[in-house]
Amino acid sequence: xxxxxxxxxxxxxxxxxxxxxxxxxxxxxxxxxxxxxxxxxxxxxxxxxxxxxxxxxxxxxxxxxxxxxxxxxxxxxxxxxxxxxxxxxxxxx
Length: 93
Prior knowledge:
Layout: H1 2-17, H2 25-36, E1 40-43, E2 49-53, H3 61-70, H4 75-82
C-alpha cells in the first residue's frame, strides 16, 4: 500500500508542477509505466508521440522504431486508436 501511495504522490507532484512549468509528458509516462507495468504512449490527435515509456521487458523493434525514431504513429494505426470507444484489454489487430 505504501508503494501505491508513494507512486500516487509522485504523479500528483508532476501534475502540480505542470501548472507552473511545461508539462513533462515523459515523466508522466514513466510513472504510469512503473505503476501499471506496461508500455505507455501519450499521443496527439494526429498521431504525434508527445511522450512514451516502455516497460522493462519490451522487445518490439518495430514499435521502438516508430516511437523513438519517427515520433509518430502511422496514420492507419492512429485512426484505429481514435475510433476505439470502450476500454478493452488486449484488443486484437
